[in-house]
Amino acid sequence: MPVWLREYSWRQTGSAVYLSLPLRGLRVTPANIFCTDQYLKVSIPPFLFEAILYAPIDDTNSTAKIGNGIIFFTLYKKEVAMWESLTLANANKEKLQSLRENAVLKAHEKAKEETEAKKVTKQEHKKYALEATMKLEEAERKRIEDLKEKERQKVTKELELWRKQQKDAEKQKRIQKEGELHEKVEQLKENKKEKINKTSIPDEGTSKTRLKATKGHGSYGMFSENLKEEQLPAPRSAATIKINFTSRVFPTALRESRIAEEEEWLRKQAEARRTISADLSELEDLKEDEKNPDWLKDKGNKMFATGNYLAAVNAYNLAVRLNNKLPLLYLNRAACHLKLRNLHKAIEDSSKALELLTPLVPDNENARVKAYVRRGTAFCQLELYTEGLQDYEAALKIDPKNRTIEKDAEKIRHLIQGTTQDS
Known about the structure:
Blueprint: E1 3-4, E2 9-12, E3 16-22, E4 33-35, E5 39-44, E6 47-52, E7 63-67, E8 70-76, H1 93-199, H2 204-215, H3 224-229, H4 259-279, H5 293-305, H6 309-322, H7 327-339, H8 343-356, H9 365-381, H10 385-398, H11 403-422
Parallel strand pairs: 1-6
Antiparallel strand pairs: 2-3, 3-8, 4-5, 5-6, 7-8
Helix pairs in contact: 5-6, 5-7, 6-7, 7-8, 7-9, 8-9, 9-10, 10-11
């Protein structure tokens, strides 16, 4: 049974209420204080202070200072007025219970909204970082393309100049060859005329000599001397021609590929690799088996069995970063948080496990029962018995033959009834 704290002092102004709650010899943390716009609760087991405020306050700007065995609250009123008392007077138990439950629901909704807002902000930051990275990459790609274009233009100009020089050299050689050929033709004509003149009036001796000469191997015709004067071109020299092919990531030939689609695919792959390396850059020193979520889960289970809950939480944290779609990782981490009294984290992990345990099939009934029981246990340890009872009843719907869960649910009902009677 809780021990109610009755000693307190308060004073007020038109816009604020100042409440002093003495807690000598007790260790108080912000987790022990729960405050909404019309409900204030300080729970330090077995001591309890609870107040349904006379009028709504601004719980966002209100503060609580802890020190020297005293909690000093500064509660700012939503409307400027003087209160007749600190708490709401002449209120029956049903109304007080209703106000208490509404306060808890509002706190849950507010926490959920803050979580969603943080998630949206984080997504916006990631989106901004991605857009900035894409802009930088686009600028770098454009700079590289400009450099390539300048280099291509430079090479094109040099190639055109070389071709022009080659054409001029070939033209010069052709003109020179034509001149040499013309000279040879003229010389042949002159030699022919001289021979005709010599053979036009032959004498007897010369004719015999010529006839004899034609019978031997040393005979020659009219153009024999011209043939001797002609020189054949030298044979072409042998050489090796090297061919370099452009390197490609894809196995298809360039003429059969779609360059735009390939570049888009490569860009997306590079972005994915950069994202993974940025998120898991600190995992580079780990071994390959240590980067396996299943191996890390088994490691965390062994640590939990030996009572080393902090080490087990670290193993589950790393496994979740590698694969955040395994519900058993969140379920096991919730059990560690319960042992370490991290009750809010246990509730978050159990809720995440229930989200991932879909669809509702017989194979995951055991895991869903564990998730409801662990979340309900965390709620009860936070003295939120109504929420805890709801989770235990949800577990009983899945496994109605579980006597242990049924006994625990009955105990919670008795606690709720006792708290209602005391209030």
